[in-house]
Amino acid sequence: AAMRSRAEVDATLQTAKLNPAELLPAVQCLSFGPQAGGGECCLLQLEPGLCAELEAGRSLVIRGEKDEHAVLCSKDKTYDMKIADTSNMLLFVPGCKTPEELNADPASCNIIHSQIAGFSKNYWELRRCRPKLKKLRKLLMEDPYEGPDSQKDQTSTFSKYTTEDLLSLIQASEEEILHQLQVIDACKIEGYWRILDFDYEMKLLNHVTQLIDSESWPLSKVPLCACLEELGSLEPREMIEHILLSYGRKYVDDAGEVFFEMREDKTCRAIAQMLLRNAVKFNLSEFEEVWQQSVPEGMTTRLDQLQGLALVDKSSRPETISLLKVEDLPEDNQERFNTLFGIRQKWTEVDITPYIQDLCAEKQTVGALLTKYARSSMLNGVKVYNSRRPIS
């Protein structure tokens, strides 16, 4: 491009009927550089918090396999990436001066010749989203840990996963992944994350609760050392400690000794799962009786401990209870509702809430989700929800 002179610029302004007095004196003449291809540059719009992350030298990671929609992760948050088109062409000009910078420079009556290094008609827009964590459990459940004596573990052909592996496979930030590993009670065995096989987990829990019973320890003060001492011959010490960490709250007393306060709700819930997994449906009153007899002395069972684990059918005579685990349901909102309405045609808000609570985005309520995916009606004076679309 030929370099424009001041006279040419003034002539152009006159033709465009623009008054030079209303403009800044500096003029930027743009020309396309030799490498100004459109495809090499991607623009990403960042909120201030993410910008600060980058400026502080931390990195953002794009995660997802070929068949997954890409997400961007910071250290502790996950964002959906969507392409936003703009009606104006966006130009990349190295060393470009903004009007404020030009204004501050009194000697800026000159002509600045700038080369465009690239351009774009769109940019990536980020929207905070729920981390996609269902897959984490699914991967670890391929090969649950059945204990040190398991033959299956020696011959297993399934992949085992380190933290690095999970970071490359799961669409969530590192903090969200590590938190979820805690939520699902995963433990590290020989450097790999594993979930305990349910029967093995129950066997460990049973060892601990029987010991508490035989030693008459209070449920709020179970000593770690004595547990490891007594049960170490039956199971690996790290497994005994893992089960105490999963089903108890760890604390240190004034003398520096480590104790655990057993979690009543979690222990009762696990025992209910063990009772329910072998029956399709269970008579509710019979179940409640057997359940209370099965939990450790001093613990009280309550149906609200089973939220997101079991479903009570009040319409059947006698009333029944059956296993329905929220973690077995689809992660996608519409698919989740389709599955739930396939299981039961009409739901009360109280019944459906534990099964959709985890779908709520930031600041979103269960009510808002129900408004979007279900329609309400009254049944015997109670508000119920059914599907907006026919369920095949």
Salient structural properties:
392 residues; 36% helix; alpha+beta; 3-stranded antiparallel beta sheet; Arc Repressor Mutant, subunit A
Descriptive notes:
The chain is α+β, with helices and mostly antiparallel strands and 392 residues long. Among the domains are: 6-128, no CATH class; 133-148 and 159-195; 198-262, Arc Repressor Mutant, subunit A (Orthogonal Bundle). It is 36% helix and 22% strand. The chain contains 15 helices and 17 strands. The protein has a four-stranded antiparallel sheet with strand order 2-3-4-6, with helices on one face. Strands 9-11-10 form a three-stranded antiparallel sheet. It has a three-stranded antiparallel sheet with strand order 12-14-13. Strand 2 (61-63) and strand 3 (71-73) form a beta hairpin. Helix 8 (198-215) crosses helix 10. The longest helix has 18 residues, at 198-215. 20% of the residues are buried. The model has no long low-confidence stretch (mean pLDDT 89).
